[in-house]
Design goal:
Blueprint lengths: L1 H22 L4 E4 L5 E3 L11 E4 L5 E8 L2 E7 L2 E6 L3 E4 L7 E10 L3 E8 L5 E6 L4 E7 L1 E3 L4 E3 L6 E10 L2 E8 L7 E6 L2 E7 L11 E6 L17 H18 L3 E4 L9 H11 L3 E8 L9 E4 L6 H11 L7 E5 L14 E8 L3 H7 L2 H20 L3
Parallel strand pairs: 8-12, 8-13, 18-19, 18-20, 20-23, 21-22
Antiparallel strand pairs: 1-4, 1-7, 2-3, 2-6, 4-5, 5-6, 8-9, 9-17, 10-11, 11-15, 14-15, 16-17, 21-23
The chain binds zinc ion.
């Protein structure tokens, strides 16, 4: 009887252990993989939940919970975020004491300004752009200021002022005020333990001839995109026609043009971002064709993620609206589409017209319309450059 009871207890214990192992979530992770990003919520729309932005790798964080393919991670006492499990590498249990932010250094190079923040550990962060006045804001989590020394060198040309505010006991907010109103790109990454902000300067000789323009023909290969309701044409076959028209026009203007794809190849959206980050274009333009269940939805729309790049997408839309019979669908902000998420360069997604609308579809099929669209995009780029302040 005692033996039976003992065996029973052992079985219960082993079962409990197996179940626990299956459900076990790591207590701590570090960010990992290519382009890890934090999200504000576990909410889903077609393109995923609203992103806080990309962050560097090897940043340790405490796991609070798990939901679907996400971990809920702690940023500071009162803040948390979500991260996809594919971007999280479990690490052994540890403690994450508050990190001190020490001295800063503002410096200028040939094309970039840099601001470095000394930290005695890697911490999560987020950043955003502000306009009028133009600023880059960075929030460092689990950080307290010990910053008593901010060196600012006259070689810095893009940065006007830098300062911070300890907004919570363990949250440090950093403000970088820019000289120019136009945002032209920045990057944040760890350099050892220092966090390094690199700011791209607005070119002094504003001319399309001196610019590298990246053109992205949406979809391709096995990624077909939408299809024409009447004609059955595929989005991927027509985005490339618009892209090539623009390439032709810009080359004539002596701009340097780089194409994400020139043939019918499969190219993941994440790889488009990695490609663009490597090629460092002045601007990035992505062509798509819209589609809706509502067949009356029609017209052209331009999209941005970061407010600092809105003026670029407005310039393009304004010119596109000069095209006869092309209606306005709108200028859309905070858009989740991956190729326009990077902060490194101004970008614009153009949804030229709707494949699901009869009139729009007819226009898309017309080569003259495609040339006109490309030409108006070119004029929009020129207008935008002229408006730089
Ligand atoms: Zn598309």
């Amino acid at each position: 009887m005692i033996l039976k009871r003992f065996i029973y207890l052992v079985i219960v214990f082993l079962l409990a252990k197996t179940i626990a192992a299956q459900d076990s979530i790591p207590s701590f992770i570090v960010t990992a993989g290519k382009l890890p990003q934090l999200a504000y919520s576990n909410g889903e729309d077609r393109l995923g939940s609203a992103k806080m932005g990309y962050i560097d790798t090897l940043i340790p964080m405490k796991v609070l919970d798990t939901a679907k393919n996400l971990y809920k991670v702690e940023l500071s006492s009162y803040h948390y975020a979500f991260i996809e499990k594919t971007y999280a590498q479990p690490i052994p249990d540890t403690t994450l004491p508050i990190v001190l932010c020490e001295s800063w250094r503002v410096n200028g190079g040939d094309e970039f300004d840099s601001v470095s923040f000394s930290l005695n550990g890697r911490v999560p962060y987020k950043s955003w752009m502000e306009i009028d006045p133009s600023r880059i804001k960075i929030v460092l989590y689990n950080v307290q200021s010990n910053t008593n020394w901010i060196t600012q060198l006259s070689s810095a040309k893009a940065v006007k002022n830098v300062w911070f505010e300890q907004t919570e006991n363990d949250v440090l907010q950093i403000s970088i005020e820019l000289v120019k109103q136009q945002h032209y790109g920045y990057k944040i990454a760890y350099n050892g333990r220092s966090l390094l902000l690199t700011i791209r300067r607005v070119p002094a000789n504003a001319n399309i001839k001196n610019m590298t323009i990246a053109i992205d023909a949406g979809h391709g290969g096995t990624n077909l995109g939408a299809s024409g309701t009447r004609s059955g044409i595929l989005e991927k076959d027509y985005t490339i026609l618009f892209a090539k028209e623009l390439q032709k026009i810009l080359k004539k203007q002596k701009a340097k043009v780089i194409m994400v794809r020139e043939t019918d190849t499969t190219f993941e959206n994440k790889d488009r971002v990695l490609w663009a980050q490597q090629n460092n274009p002045d601007v990035f333009i992505s062509f798509h064709l819209n589609s809706s269940g509502r067949t009356t939805a029609k017209g052209v729309s331009t999209y941005y993620k970061h407010i600092g790049y809105r003026s670029f997408t407005q310039s393009l839309l304004k010119r596109l609206l000069e095209i006869k019979n092309l209606e306005e669908f709108g200028n859309i902000g905070s858009f989740n589409f991956q190729p326009i998420q990077p902060t490194e360069y101004p970008s614009c997604l153009v949804e030229v017209a709707f494949l699901s609308n009869e009139e729009d579809e007819k226009m898309i099929l017309d080569p003259k319309f495609r040339t006109k669209v490309a030409n108006q995009v070119y004029l929009g780029i020129k207008d935008w450059i002229k408006g730089w302040k």
